[in-house]
Amino acid sequence: VEFLYCDLASMKSIWQFVQRFRAKNCPLHVLVNNAGVMLVPERKTEDGFEEHFGLNYLGHFLLTNLLLDTLKQSGTHSHNARIITVASATHYVGKLHLNDLQSRCSYSPHGAYAQSKLALVLFTYQLQHLLTANGSHVTANVVDPGVVNTDLYKHISWVVKVAKWMTAWLFFKTPEEGASTSIYAAVSPEMEGAGGCYLYNEERTKSADVTYDEELQRRLWTESCKMVGISDESSRVP
């Protein structure tokens, strides 16, 4: 195991990480996009993005795009490289505000978090479309880990913290249990060659209806490319 530092809230850090990783000339068979913050007070990343959207979504969007060439080179017909992105059931209640992705008009921690997770699902489906269109041996899937007992909840109110402390053993998964579906997506032979899936408890399930809106997928992708400063490859794909 080797650790390479990468701050998903910093576009500069992501570029630096990718340069260091590429310099090693290693193949890349599995990428798990798992970083995240939840219900943080209104604040911005160093690049001026609302933190939920910037870290949870845009950081992973840029990282994945910068590593795509390596993933494509690493995948084969019999063993596809795999991209797994961790979303959340909160995407079901999320709304994507294309005209206000930074939540400047009215900030809600719950709304901003849900929007970032909805964006991750839309991103995954559009990414799979592009990978399929290019004939790449790479698959992209999105995972709902369930309610997991981690430090992700440190910004909730003290009342909810007390309730969580009292009921965690009953309603919350352990981190090991929460990781199981991501691991399934990353290594299971059953997922070989399968992309564009939403997985919960190691089962394929249906995500929110809006996530299957292909026009919304494309518009978010195009806007995301502009925000992180990369070329929009989707414009070259029918």
Automatic annotation (TrEMBL):
Q: Which GO terms describe its cellular component?
A: extracellular region; lipid droplet
Q: Which Pfam families match?
A: adh_short (PF00106)
Q: What is its EC number?
A: 1.1.1.441
Per the record, the domain of life is Eukaryota
> Which SUPFAM superfamilies would you find in this protein's record?
NAD(P)-binding Rossmann-fold domains (SSF51735)
**Main localization of the protein described in the UniProt heading:** other
Gene Ontology molecular function, alphabetical:
oxidoreductase activity
Q: In which pathway does it act?
A: Protein modification; protein glycosylation
Keywords from the UniProt entry = Lipid droplet, NAD, NADP, Oxidoreductase, Secreted
Subcellular location(s): the record lists: Lipid droplet; Secreted
PROSITE patterns in the record:
ADH_SHORT
Substrates-to-products reaction catalysed = a di-trans,poly-cis-dolichol + NADP(+) = a di-trans,poly-cis-dolichal + NADPH + H(+); a di-trans,poly-cis-dolichol + NAD(+) = a di-trans,poly-cis-dolichal + NADH + H(+); a di-trans,poly-cis-polyprenol + NADP(+) = a di-trans,poly-cis-polyprenal + NADPH + H(+); a di-trans,poly-cis-polyprenol + NAD(+) = a di-trans,poly-cis-polyprenal + NADH + H(+)
- Family, as annotated: Belongs to the short-chain dehydrogenases/reductases (SDR) family.
Q: Which PANTHER family match?
A: PHOSPHATIDYLINOSITOL-GLYCAN BIOSYNTHESIS CLASS F PROTEIN, PHOSPHATIDYLINOSITOL-GLYCAN BIOSYNTHESIS CLASS F PROTEIN-RELATED
Per the entry, what this protein does is: Oxidoreductase that plays a key role in early steps of protein N-linked glycosylation by mediating two non-consecutive steps in dolichol biosynthesis. Acts both as a NAD(+)-dependent dehydrogenase and as a NADPH-dependent reductase during the conversion of polyprenol into dolichol. First catalyzes the NAD(+)-dependent dehydrogenation of polyprenol into polyprenal; polyprenal is then reduced into dolichal by SRD5A3. It then catalyzes the NADPH-dependent reduction of dolichal into dolichol. May also acts as a positive regulator of starvation-induced autophagy.
What is the protein name given in its UniProt record? Answer: Polyprenol dehydrogenase
What organism does this protein naturally occur in? Nyctibius bracteatus (Rufous potoo)
